[in-house]
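This part of the workshop introduces the protein records we will be handling. The structure tokens are whole numbers drawn from a learned vocabulary of backbone shapes. The record below serves as our worked example for the rest of this section.

===
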Amino acid sequence: MPSDRDIILEPIISEKTVRLKEENKYVFKVDWKVNSTEIGKSIEEKFKTKVAKVNIMKMPGKKKSLGKYSGKTSRWKKAIVTLKKGEKIKELENI
């Protein structure tokens, strides 16, 4: 199993994720190779909270072009982590 540092790449901050925070849900960009069990354990260890549920979405790469050059962005995985009632991630509360 990869370390916590390798599993959770960064939190995703947007208007939608701020609304989800009120429902005790947090959204993270995670490593492509990990599963929901590993993500849940990593969140519990890193932020000292209890995880109720983890949902995962695989985000496909998109085609991009700049002038005559074309390419593709990398695929990535998004995890929506639901915490148990009364639990919060203090590091992400001020956002």
Observations:
- The two ends are 30 Å apart (CA to CA).
- The first strand starts at residue 8 and ends at 11.
- The helical segments are 4-7, 15-21, 36-47.
- The chain has a mean pLDDT of 93.
